Structures are given as structure tokens and as C-alpha cells.
Amino acid sequence: MNSKTTLSITEARKKIFDIAQDVQNPGVIYTLTENGKPKAVILSYEEYESIIETMDVMEEMPELDKELKESRAAVKRGEHKNWTTLEELLAKQGFVLAEKAKKPYGVPTKTGPKGRKATK
């Protein structure tokens, strides 16, 4: 769903609580106008955070779009040997991944009180 609604600021003022609730639905965005010209946009905080995160990733990895297009083309051609793992792509962009933990966090180690599993 990608629902865009345009309202005047005056009309939005009357419906602000309904608008705040409505934008919690994925893809719902309100454009507020003044004298018929767009002045502001209302969207959920989650949607806003997603946009900011996407912009950050695009800034940190400027070649990502090119890499994705190349990968999609390779998939269409059936060239599986040309696939790049996430780790390889991040390393190519200069990111260093931490080593994986040898023991997962919260793994039961012994029986605790009342027969329940205890964790370290």
C-alpha cells in the first residue's frame, strides 16, 4: 500500500490525531499544503527512520546500486558463480566484520532451581 493524501495545514490541524494514527499504517503519507503549495510531510517515525537509514547506507556504500544491478543481471543470466556474499561486499566497501561468537548467548548450561534450564 502506498497511500498519499494531500491536505491543507488548516484541515490537518483539525484532524491531527487521526492523521497521526493513520500514518502508522505502512506506506501512508500526508502532504500538507499552504495556499495550494506543499509545505510539509507527515509520516510515521518508523517510516522516517527507514528513509534515514537507507540514505546513510547509500552514502556509505555509493557503489551499492551498481553492485545490485550487476547481481540482478547475473541472476537473470544464470551466472551463479558470480554471486557476491554480504561479507565480501562489505569487505570490498571497507567494512570489517567482527568474529562470530564461539558459543551463542543464552545457551542452557545446567539445570537450575525447580528443574528449569539455567543460563550463564
Q: Can you give a write-up of this model?
A:
The protein has a 3-stranded mixed β-sheet with strand order 1-2-3. Strands 4-5 form a two-stranded antiparallel sheet. The chain has 5 helices and 5 strands, in the order βααββαααββ. It has a domain at 3-46: YefM-like fold (3-Layer(aba) Sandwich). The chain starts with a strand and ends with a strand. With 120 residues, it is α+β, with helices and mostly antiparallel strands. The protein has helices at 9-14, 16-22, 45-60, 64-77, 86-92; strands at residues 3-8, 28-34, 37-42, 108-111, 117-119.
SSE diagram, text form:
Layout: E1 3-8, H1 9-14, H2 16-22, E2 28-34, E3 37-42, H3 45-60, H4 64-77, H5 86-92, E4 108-111, E5 117-119
> What is the count of β-strands?
5
| Spatial strand arrangement across the major sheet | 1-2-3
Give the name of the CATH superfamily of the domain at 3-46.
YefM-like domain
Sheet with most strands = 3 strands, mixed
Assembly form of the protein: single chain
What is the string of helix and strand elements? EHHEEHHHEE
In short:
The protein has about 120 residues and is α+β, with helices and mostly antiparallel strands.
Q: Which keywords apply here?
A:
single chain; 120 residues; alpha+beta; YefM-like fold; three-stranded mixed beta sheet; two-stranded antiparallel sheet; 5 helices; 42% helix; elongated
